[in-house]
Design brief:
The chain has 234 residues and is α/β, with parallel strands linked by helices. The chain has a single domain, classed as Rossmann fold (3-Layer(aba) Sandwich). 27% of the residues lie in helices and 25% in strands. It has helices at 33-40, 42-45, 83-98, 113-125, 165-168, 171-179, 218-227; strands at 8-11, 20-26, 50-54, 101-111, 131-135, 151-157, 182-189, 192-196, 202-208. It is globular.
Length: 234
């Protein structure tokens, strides 16, 4: 959107003498970058990373906001005039110009409506993304044949009142097929299931008994997942 001021919370490592990974973290509908930063604290969990928490804009009509009065993200190509894809492009270009960005380690994650935008970014900007993490809303329809194959983390609550679990879990076999992971390789640790495929590709599914909010342990699992992957190595 030309002429519209956009904002984000940016946290930069104290040591910028070497290339740093970048994590984009997109809040859910009605949220803000600052609140999302306080909730998930990716920068605290990964102090060597450049972490950016962008702010959405009103306009997208969400499940709990049918008039689109609250901040949110586009979820389809062309939605809201592609304002959020353009925002992402500007943010990434600015980071590359101003900071020592490791182009092999650019990660995208989001919660709810922000998760849907994360999936759209993988589809539309996936050539530069090393891995993604979806929380409380899964890629599903965004797993197109033309999309790049990238390692994925998916977290979903079995009692989610906003995005029903029955709907979210349908993405698991779609992701398994897309990524070419072998269910026989699955390693289960509590609620976390990890499956592996060719070229270090990995699918992590965290199916928990809670609802729509992000469980406290999930951000740490996402950081550990991101740290295992690069753009050139799965």
């Amino acid at each position: 959107m030309s002429g519209v001021t956009r904002s984000a919370v940016l946290v930069v490592p104290s040591d910028l003498s070497q290339l740093a990974p970048v994590v984009f973290a997109f809040h859910g509908h009605g949220g803000s970058g600052a609140n999302f930063e306080r909730k998930i604290d990716i920068d605290g969990l990964w102090p060597d990373a450049i972490v950016i928490y962008p702010d959405g804009l009103p306009g997208h009509k969400g499940i709990t906001d049918p008039d689109g009065n609250l901040p949110g993200w586009q979820v389809a190509p062309g939605g809201e005039g592609d304002r959020d894809l353009a925002f992402y492009d500007t943010l990434l270009a600015t980071l590359r110009a101003k900071l020592p960005v490791d182009g092999d380690r650019i990660f995208v994650m989001g919660h709810s409506n922000g998760s849907a935008f994360t999936s759209l970014l993988l589809s539309q900007r996936g050539d530069s993304i090393a891995a993604t993490a979806n929380m409380s809303s899964q890629p599903g329809a965004f797993l197109l044949a033309s999309d790049p194959v990238r390692s994925m983390f998916m977290s979903m609550g079995m009692t989610d009142p906003i995005v029903p679990f029955d709907q979210q879990q349908k993405s698991i076999p779609l992701a398994e097929q897309k990524l070419g992971v072998d269910p026989a390789t699955a390693v289960v640790d509590g609620f976390l299931r990890v499956e592996h495929g060719p070229r270090n590709v990995e699918l992590d599914t965290y199916v928990h008994p809670a609802g729509h909010e992000v469980p406290a342990e999930v951000p740490g699992l996402v950081v550990a997942f991101f740290q295992r992957h690069t753009l050139s190595g799965g």
